[in-house]
Q: What sequence folds into this?
C-alpha cells in the first residue's frame, strides 16, 4: 500500500513539473501595470479594463512638483477634474450633502435617503497621496458607504500637503472626532474609514487619540493604507513596477511634502512605528495583491496583541450575555486560566443549532496564546454572592410551585414551600421559605412523610466546607 502511494505521488509530481515547464515557456507580461489576472471575477475585470487607461494617462501626464506653487497647481487641477462630477453623482443618488464645520475644521456631510438616526456616525478621511483630493472630490465613496450602511457620513476636509503636514492633519482629525463626542456621540458609536493616505491618517490619528487619553472609535476600515512613509516594506521593491496607479518617484515627492525625513518614524506620521499593544480599535485592513502601499506590516502588528475566541451560545441563555462580561477560559496547553471579555455577539440566531455566536477577546500582549489552542470556556450568566443555596436534588417541583422537606428542632419532618432563584445545575438559590441553618432532607423524599419522627444525620456540602455557606 505504501509503495502504491509513493508511485502516485511521484507521478503527480512529474505531471506538475511538466506543466510548470510548459507554463515557463509562455512569455511574461511586458507591462505588469496593465496586466489583468485571469483569476479575477468578470465584475473585477470590467472595472480594471475601465480604470487602467485612465490611471495610465494620469501617470503619464504627472510631473513631480517641487515648489509650493506647483503643488497648488497640481491640487487645483485635480479638484477641478473631480469635485463637480462627484457632486453630480450624489444628486442623482438622492444623497443630501451639507458643508459645515466641526472642531474648527471644514467637513462635508452625506445623508442617505430615508435616513433614520440611530445615533451612530461614520467619519471619512479621503486619500490622494496626502497632496491631492478633498472632502467633496471623494463624495462618490461617501455615497457608496452611506447607501450600504444607511448611516450619515462626515468627510473631513483636512489641509493637504505641503500646506498641511502630519501634525496639522492628525490634529484636525482629532478635533473633528472630539467635536462628535461633544455632541453626545459615544466613542463606540463612531466608526472611521480612510482610503490610501486617508487610511494612514486614520490609524495615525487614532494612535494620537489613544495617547491623549481620548476614548477611541468603535471600529476602523483602512483601505490600502501606507503605514511606513520611509517605504521600507518589501512591496515597495517587489511591486514597484506592478502597481497600476502609483509611481515611486511621485510618491516620494508627496511623502516628503507631508513629513520631513526625521519625522517619518513618528507613529503619528507612519503608524507602523506605533505601539499597538497599548490598545487599538477593531480594524478591517484591505490591500490589493499588487499594491505597493505597505498595508501588510500593520496587519501583523495589530494581530499579536489580541486573540478572539468564538463560542456558540444556546438560545436560552443569549439574553443574559452582555458586552464586557468577564469570561474565564481554561487553556489546557498552558495549564492555566485566562480571563477575557465579551466583545461582540451575533444579532441573528442559527436556526439549525438554535445558537448565537459570541466573540470573546483576550489580551495577548505576552504572546502566550497561539491560534489553534484548545480551551474550556466558563461564562457566568448570573451571579448571586453570599446567597442561601440548597442542592437541586432536595427540591420537588410542580409547575411553578417548589417545596422541600425539612427536619425541625423536634426531629419531625415538615414541608416548606419555597421560592427559587438561579441555579448552576447542582445548587439552587432560595429566595424565600428557608432560613440559614434549616435542616433540609436530602435523599429519596418518598421515604418520608409529614409528621414522621426521624434521627437525622447532618452532612456538610462542598460549598459549605469551602465558603461556610448553607
A:
Amino acid at each position: 500500500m505504501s509503495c502504491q502511494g509513493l508511485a502516485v505521488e511521484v507521478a503527480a509530481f512529474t505531471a506538475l513539473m511538466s506543466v510548470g515547464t510548459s507554463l515557463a515557456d509562455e512569455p511574461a507580461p511586458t507591462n505588469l501595470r496593465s496586466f489583468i489576472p485571469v483569476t479575477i471575477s468578470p465584475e473585477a475585470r470590467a472595472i480594471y479594463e475601465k480604470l487602467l487607461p485612465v490611471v495610465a494617462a494620469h501617470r503619464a501626464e504627472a510631473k513631480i512638483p517641487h515648489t509650493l506653487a506647483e503643488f497648488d497647481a497640481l491640487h487645483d487641477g485635480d479638484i477641478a477634474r473631480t469635485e463637480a462630477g462627484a457632486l453630480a453623482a450624489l444628486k442623482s443618488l438622492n444623497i443630501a450633502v451639507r458643508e459645515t464645520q466641526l472642531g474648527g475644521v471644514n467637513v462635508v456631510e452625506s445623508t442617505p435617503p430615508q435616513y433614520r438616526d440611530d445615533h451612530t456616525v461614520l467619519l471619512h478621511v479621503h486619500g490622494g497621496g496626502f497632496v491631492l483630493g478633498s472632502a467633496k472630490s471623494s463624495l462618490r465613496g461617501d455615497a457608496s458607504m452611506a447607501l450600504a450602511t444607511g448611516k450619515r457620513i462626515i468627510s473631513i476636509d483636512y489641509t493637504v500637503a505641503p500646506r498641511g503636514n502630519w501634525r496639522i492633519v492628525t490634529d484636525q482629525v482629532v478635533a473633528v472626532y472630539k467635536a462628535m463626542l461633544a455632541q453626545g456621540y459615544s466613542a463606540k458609536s463612531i466608526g472611521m474609514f480612510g482610503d490610501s493616505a486617508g487610511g494612514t491618517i486614520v490609524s495615525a490619528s487614532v494612535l494620537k487619540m489613544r495617547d491623549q487619553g481620548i476614548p477611541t472609535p468603535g471600529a476602523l476600515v483602512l483601505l490600502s493604507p501606507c503605514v511606513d512613509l520611509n517605504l521600507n516594506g518589501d512591496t515597495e521593491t517587489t511591486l514597484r513596477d506592478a502597481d497600476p496607479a502609483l509611481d515611486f518617484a511621485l510618491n516620494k515627492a508627496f511623502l516628503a511634502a507631508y513629513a520631513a525625513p526625521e519625522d517619518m518614524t513618528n507613529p503619528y506620521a507612519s503608524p507602523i512605528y506605533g505601539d499597538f499593544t497599548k490598545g487599538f480599535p477593531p480594524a478591517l485592513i484591505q490591500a490589493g495583491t499588487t499594491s505597493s502601499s505597505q498595508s501588510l506590516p500593520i496587519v501583523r502588528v495589530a494581530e499579536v496583541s489580541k486573540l478572539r475566541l468564538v463560542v456558540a451560545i444556546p438560545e436560552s441563555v443569549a439574553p443574559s450575555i452582555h458586552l464586557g462580561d468577564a469570561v474565564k477560559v481554561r487553556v489546557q496547553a498552558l495549564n492555566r486560566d485566562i480571563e477575557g471579555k465579551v466583545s461582540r455577539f451575533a444579532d441573528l440566531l442559527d436556526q439549525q443549532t438554535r445558537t448565537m455566536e459570541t466573540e470573546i477577546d483576550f489580551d495577548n500582549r505576552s504572546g502566550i496564546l497561539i491560534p489553534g489552542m484548545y480551551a474550556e470556556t466558563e461564562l457566568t450568566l448570573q451571579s448571586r454572592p453570599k446567597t442561601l443555596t440548597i442542592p437541586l436534588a432536595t427540591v420537588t417541583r410542580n409547575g411553578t410551585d417548589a417545596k422541600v422537606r425539612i427536619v425541625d428542632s423536634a426531629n419531625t419532618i415538615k414541608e416548606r414551600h419555597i421560592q427559587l432563584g438561579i441555579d448552576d445545575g447542582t445548587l439552587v438559590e432560595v429566595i424565600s421559605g428557608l432560613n440559614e441553618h434549616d435542616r433540609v432532607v436530602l435523599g429519596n423524599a418518598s421515604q418520608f412523610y409529614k409528621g414522621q419522627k426521624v434521627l437525622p444525620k447532618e452532612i456538610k456540602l462542598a460549598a459549605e466546607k469551602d465558603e461556610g455557606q448553607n
